[in-house]
Amino acid sequence: MLFPKKVKHRKWQTGRVNKKKLERPDSRGVTVSFGSYGLKSIDQARITSNQIEASRKVIVRTIGKMGKMWIRIFPDRPFTQKAAEVGMGKGKGDPQGYVAEIRPGRILFEVDGVSEEVARNALRKAGMKMPVKTKIVAR
User: Fold this and answer.
1) Which of 59, 90, 112, 122 supports an S-S bond with 35, CB 3.0-4.6 Å?
2) By C-alpha distance, which of 79, 116, 73 is closest to 96?
3) What average pLDDT does the segment 64-91 reach?
4) 8 belongs to a structural domain
């Protein structure tokens, strides 16, 4: 699974949910840069490192040894969770993992070196593992 080697702050503040800002399309990472086909997000969400790893595995299995894939997102935001049956108060919970904040328009994965049919099939399967609606785009 992906996670940072070192972080400056162990726990982050949650941050406000500004619906207008979140629904605005992303400005960085919105074009297919490395491969021929990409998986693009349509809505916003926080994608965990487990979900990224599940998508990576299904793409690698589908494209085989001939194809190459790129992961265009990285989970660098820690999230915390309090233990089960713990009362309110007594501080913030322990870090549980890392997430990547995704806004609409962000390219999540890219694939190259395989036919269009294989690439679309791999990206379709990877999109099923994601908590966002996705579409497949070509260069």
Assistant:
1) 112
2) 79
3) 94
4) no
CATH number at residue 132: 3.90.1170.10
pLDDT for the residue 25:
86
Residue numbers of the domain that contains 40: 27-80+96-138
Q: Which of 7-16, 97-106, 130-139 has the lowest mean pLDDT?
A: 7-16
DSSP state letters, 49-111: HHHHHHHHHHHHHHHTTT-EEEE-----EEEEEPPTTPPS-SSPPEEEEEEEEE-TT-EEEEE
Is 10 inside any structural domain? no
CB neighbour list of residue 11: distance below 8 Å, 6 or more residues apart = 78, 80, 92, 95
Count of structural domains, the chain: 1
Which residues, in sequence order, are CB contacts of 86 under 8 Å at separation 6+?
93
Predicted model pTM: 0.91
Helix (H, G, I), strand (E, B) or coil at 37: strand
Could you report the per-residue pLDDT of 87-110, keeping only the tens digit for each? 999 899 999 999 999 999 999 999
Residue 6, exposed/middle/buried by CB under 10 A (0-12, 13-18, 19+)?
A: exposed
In a domain? residue 5? no
